[in-house]
Amino acid sequence: AAGVIQSPRHLIKEKRETATLKCYPIPRHDTVYWYQQGPGQDPQFLISFYEKMQSDKGSIPDRFSAQQFSDYHSELNMSSLELGDSALYFCASSSRGTSFYNEQFFGPGTRLTVL
Amino acid sequence: AQKITQTQPGMFVQEKEAVTLDCTYDTSDPSYGLFWYKQPSSGEMIFLIYQGSYDQQNATEGRYSLNFQKARKSANLVISASQLGDSAMYFCAMREADNQGGKLIFGQGTELSVKP
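The joint structure predicted for all components is written out below.
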């Protein structure tokens, strides 16, 4: 079965550089979520999109922006990178449907290291 | 305020024994869902089990079961017959119904080590 695809899997950047993380949700999933997991931390919600519109926003820095495209893939753009941005970035997708239970399927994550 | 609390930073269990990982939560929303995820050292997040707030019976998925005590606001994960491959970080997470976006709020995690 198709899973959530994230690219790249690993990314190394210098401080003040920019980075773009990509997420390809499971086919026919209409919702995409982005989470940030710092070293030894639990995942923290950043932002989500439903049918290409932003549906919720968490503790996402102003230096970050994201969007969902017509083919439902999503990109997380990060500018002026700081050392503290080093983390594992997860994308998850789900199908909202009518059931309250909508399991979020997580991608393998992109490990960003800022030097 | 932390809405999901996992009070056990680390747990050890002997292979083939059962282990319970604790999770308590706080919400004023009568409708919510509780999830458990496993995160091996490789980093991926693997869904294990789900419990809805209105579910009458405790959820079970193979060797995983959820001890749901609504009045106590606890949703403990029970792993029976532990295997070496169960060694990983385990996260409890919650989604509230009034959160239309559907985001998950995670606990701090419990690192489980299975000893041979």
